[in-house]
Design goal:
Elements (H helix, E strand, L loop, with lengths): L15 H23 L21 E3 L10 H11 L5 H17 L4 H15 L4 H16 L5 H12 L4 E8 H10 L4 E5 L1 E4 L2 E6 L7 H14 L7 E4 L5 H6 L2 E5 L3 H9 L3 E3 L4 H13 L20
Parallel strand pairs: 1-2, 1-6, 2-3, 6-7, 7-8
Antiparallel strand pairs: 4-5
Helix pairs in contact: 1-8, 2-3, 2-5, 3-4, 5-7, 6-11
């Protein structure tokens, strides 16, 4: 996933902070789902039927930006906050420039991401978590719903129809990820968590952004806690930064891949999907479905949502 903001430069290998962020994300995600339950193009012809119906030890993990949704969730969230007068025009211009760079270059620029993250943290500082969650629901309807890739949505639904949990895994703020996961009927979301005290954002992060190796650690920790077999799981992303996460699972998919991920996917014979042109959207999204029958508490590190009701 190529998230626009909230990110910092880091080495490719997992650091102690990456492991901490990943494990914290997985634990928060599991707790969130338990609490919710308590309150309530390639040649597809060569591929075996997938996902496997009734495989209870399998799950799917989806990056968000440019994988599930066109563009960066943080940018669209920023547009909504600007509309509600959370910040000034010059801040919106900076968000717009970062989004334009992201869309045109197709890669994550550390300086842009650092700036966007710092800007977003300063904007939400002093606001209540509940307020941002409520606003997030409105912003999803205003700016995000129409930008969901139908092909990727079909892949996620195929896993759900097969009885498998589906998680978003993103460096975007968990509030955004949680709203999107719930609105798409997914199991939940692992995202970057913002620190809060007594329900109010402090403007700091919990750990580090869920990005690169930290995503892989989050998936690994969640799989261990949920009893999943990673060799039977799938992961989907557009970004080479998510190669650590994609390499964990038995079924890695490169979705709308950047050049580095496309090259890596071809080298290791990973499946490719590209929904950036209309010609493949209908064709590629259907086979998987046919195979089975058709910034919350803390600041940015990871939590998630409720389980999809069966």
């Amino acid at each position: 996933m190529a998230a626009l903001g909230w990110l910092t430069p880091r080495r490719r290998s997992a650091t102690a902070r990456s492991v901490l962020a990943g494990e914290a994300s997985a634990e928060a995600a599991r707790k969130s789902t338990q609490d919710a339950a308590a309150h309530d193009g390639t040649d597809e012809a060569r591929e075996p039927e997938f996902p496997v119906l009734g495989d209870e030890r399998a799950a799917a993990f989806f990056d968000l930006d440019n994988t599930v949704m066109q563009g960066a969730a943080l940018f669209h969230f920023g547009r909504g906050l600007y509309k509600r007068k959370f910040f000034e025009t010059r801040d919106l211009a900076r968000f717009a420039w970062q989004q334009a760079w992201f869309r045109l270059a197709g890669v994550e620029d550390p300086e842009h991401m650092q700036d966007a993250r710092d800007s977003a943290l300063s904007i939400v500082k002093g606001h209540r978590v509940a307020e941002l969650m409520s606003i997030g629901e409105e912003i999803y309807d205003e700016y995000m719903a129409e930008r969901i890739w139908p092909g990727t949505r079909a892949l996620a639904q195929a896993h759900l129809d097969a009885g498998q949990p589906v998680w978003l895994v993103t460096a975007a703020p968990v509030e955004i990820a949680t709203v999107i996961a719930r609105r798409l009927g997914l199991t939940g979301a692992l995202g970057t968590v913002a620190e809060s005290v007594d329900g109010v954002y402090t403007g700091k992060l919990v750990g580090e952004p869920l990005h690169g190796p930290a995503k892989a650690e989050a998936v690994r920790a969640l799989a261990a806690a949920e009893g999943l077999d990673l060799a039977r799981c799938a992961a989907y992303s557009d970004s080479h930064n998510d190669i650590p996460m994609l390499s964990l699972v038995g079924h890695p998919y490169a979705i709308n891949p950047d050049s580095k991920l496309r090259k890596h996917a071809r080298t290791y014979d990973w499946r490719l999907r590209d929904y950036r042109t209309a010609r493949k959207a209908a064709k590629v999204g259907l086979p998987a479905a046919a195979g089975v029958g058709a910034v919350a508490g803390g600041t940015v590190a990871a939590i998630a949502l409720h389980r999809r009701r069966r």
